[in-house]
């Protein structure tokens, strides 16, 4: 089979040149636009990025607000937060969060769950390190200069009010009148007071019930909860040896 060689005319050459110039038109427009206006790219990292006000970078902490309730560690989906021993100047040995930012996906759930707004979201995202140890942020390294807006606050509605079909109100994250509560089963309580000793918010007090133990002849005390102070960290539920404490959810 013989293949005939095609001969290109001057019209073909002009047509091909027109196609090239037409495609280059977009490039030339971009070059002209860049001389008048700011280009779409910047000289990073010499020129810093501009991020919005609600940008979520690595988590930070305000140590003065932290009570060691560990709600941030429980809410972390990547399990990159660990409660470690920390020596506080006033309170002595306490538990404070340590974050592995190498595993952190910067979702901000820890700041959302924090009842005292001690955990915050910072605008820092440049976290490269030459070693894995450099990605471990202890409570001191986790600190960040606080600015208004770094806290993550939100509002929620009660499911019972939504189902009733009436007026639906919204409540703040830390509203003490509307949140989950701890319920006591007095028939199981042995008055060991482990819940009161464990509570990081000092929301539990061992109060007299007016009854006397027939064996020890001592007054029977049971925990009394202050819902205004309670942060629902569930540490009392976890340490109770008789499982007489349970969580009553609002939603």
Quick take:
The protein is α+β, with helices and mostly antiparallel strands.
Essential attributes:
two-stranded antiparallel ribbon; three-stranded antiparallel sheet; alpha+beta; 6 helices; 251 residues; Alpha-Beta Plaits
Description:
- With 251 residues, the protein is an alpha+beta fold.
- The chain has a domain at 181-248: 2-Layer Sandwich (Alpha-Beta Plaits).
- 21% of the residues lie in helices and 22% in strands.
- The chain has helices spanning 10-36, 71-75, 109-113, 159-164, 194-198, 235-239, and strands at 59-61, 81-88, 92-100, 119-121, 136-137, 155-157, 170-172, 181-184, 204-212, 219-225, 245-248.
- Strands 2-3-5 form a three-stranded antiparallel β-sheet. A two-stranded antiparallel sheet has the order 1-4.
- It is elongated.
Largest sheet: 3 strands, antiparallel
- Rough outline: elongated
Mean pLDDT, as a whole number? 84
Instruction: Tell me the quaternary state.
Output: single chain
Our estimate of the beta-strand percent is: 15-25%
Secondary-structure-derived class: alpha+beta
Helix content: 10-25%
- Name the helix and strand elements from N-terminus to C-terminus, one letter apiece: HEHEEHEEEHEEHEEHE
């Amino acid at each position: 089979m013989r293949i005939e060689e095609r001969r290109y005319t001057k019209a073909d050459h002009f047509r091909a040149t027109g196609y090239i110039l037409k495609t280059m038109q977009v490039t030339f427009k971009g070059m002209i636009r860049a001389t008048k206006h700011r280009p779409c790219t910047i000289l990073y990292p010499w020129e810093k990025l501009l991020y919005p006000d609600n940008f979520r970078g690595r988590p930070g902490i305000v140590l003065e607000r932290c009570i060691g309730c560990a709600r941030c560690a429980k809410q972390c989906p990547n399990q990159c937060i660990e409660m470690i021993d920390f020596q506080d100047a006033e309170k002595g040995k306490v538990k404070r969060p340590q974050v592995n930012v190498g595993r952190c996906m910067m979702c901000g759930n820890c700041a959302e769950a924090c009842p005292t707004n001690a955990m915050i979201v910072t605008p820092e995202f440049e976290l490269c390190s030459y070693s894995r140890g450099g990605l471990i942020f202890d409570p001191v390294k986790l600190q960040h200069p606080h600015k208004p807006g770094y806290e993550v606050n939100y509002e929620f509605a009660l499911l019972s009010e939504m189902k009733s079909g009436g007026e639906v109100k919204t409540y703040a994250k830390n509203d003490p009148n509307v949140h989950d509560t701890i319920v006591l089963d007095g028939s199981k309580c042995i008055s060991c007071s482990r819940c009161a000793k464990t509570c990081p918010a000092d929301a539990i007090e061992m109060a007299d019930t007016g009854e006397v133990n027939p064996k020890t002849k001592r007054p029977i005390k049971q925990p009394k909860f202050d819902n205004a102070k309670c942060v629902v960290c569930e540490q009392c539920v976890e340490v109770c040896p008789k499982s007489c404490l349970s969580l009553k959810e609002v939603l």
